[in-house]
Amino acid sequence: MKARKLGALLLGAMLTVASLTGCSASGQTTSGAEAQATAENGYGLEEFVMVMIPGEDTEKSVQLRDNMAQEMSEAIGVPVTTYRATDYSAAVEAMRTGNAQLAYLGPFSYVTARERAGAECLVVQGQVGTKGGYKSYIVVQADSDIQSLEDLQGKTFAFVDPESTSGNVIPTDEILSAFPDLGLTFDDLHTDGKFFSSAMFAGSHQGSLQAVAQGNVDAAAVGSSVYENQVEEGSVNEEDLRIIHESPDIPGSPLAIQKDLPQELKDKVKEFLLSYDDPEYFGDEEGKEPKRFVEISDSDYDYLADLKETYNLSD
């Protein structure tokens, strides 16, 4: 818990420094007069900060993100800056403290953010006309003797992050449901020797997947979209891995905005996101339906809130 809070504080400090220097998406600094003019004409903001949950950045993905930030800046009339959070809690904390106005969150961390930080979901990525979504996979090496959830007891396991939906909350619930007679608690699955011989948090979906691919753990939880991307990129060999369990559909990871921002600004941000159509940003593939930002309802995340209450998961 201390490490998670420290990550949030460090991100908050970094965002505060960036705000004071008036950094824009392009990395240029603004003069005091320019910053004042921006504040007066930008809904009281010198910059509009978007923070994202942990993930692997590539030179291309950073450039695509910066391109979107630049276009958003022009659309909303405020310089947009993007940051990658150190962990899920840091992203929520950045919104709570006002150091970020927009956040790309996991579904479960969104539930936390709407409770603690007044977050309001806007959109998710998905095929046009859908609400977007994905699954949680539990993955083992191809030659593993683990065939189902029932074979996981006594093994080593990698989760992603305490706030990760597909990397922790959902797989924990699925495993607990497979062993109703053991009287296990949520914490038992994260305590060495209670169910797993050892359990760890890898910190990212990529890290969790690599932990099992490299044989550091017997099994791991990972979001389906990350698994598929890592296979496509060649970071893991699909022939070396086997999916032993898929969860039901999970609502997509939302882009959420601070609820108490001016409605005009929130409308501009949402309008921009729904109209954004860079095929490279969304990773469109020939022969497949293109992805875009699509609307999502706050109520779609209620069942995750119910899980949080059921397992008494604290922030």
Polypeptide structure, described:
The chain is built from eleven helices and 13 strands. The longest helix has 20 residues, at 2-21. The protein has helices at residues 2-21, 32-41, 59-76, 88-96, 107-116, 165-178, 205-213, 224-233, 263-275, 279-282, 302-310, and strands spanning 48-52, 80-84, 102-104, 119-127, 133-134, 136-141, 156-159, 198-201, 219-223, 241-246, 250-251, 255-258, 291-295. Strands 2-1-3-12-4-13 form a six-stranded mixed sheet, sandwiched between helices. A five-stranded mixed sheet has the order 8-7-9-6-10. A two-stranded antiparallel sheet has the order 5-11. It is globular and about 55 Å long. It is 40% helix and 19% strand. The chain starts with a helix and ends in a 5-residue tail after the last helix. Helix 1 (2-21) packs across helix 4 (88-96) and helix 4 (88-96) packs parallel to helix 5. Residues 1-39 have low confidence and may be disordered. With 315 residues, it is of the alpha/beta class.
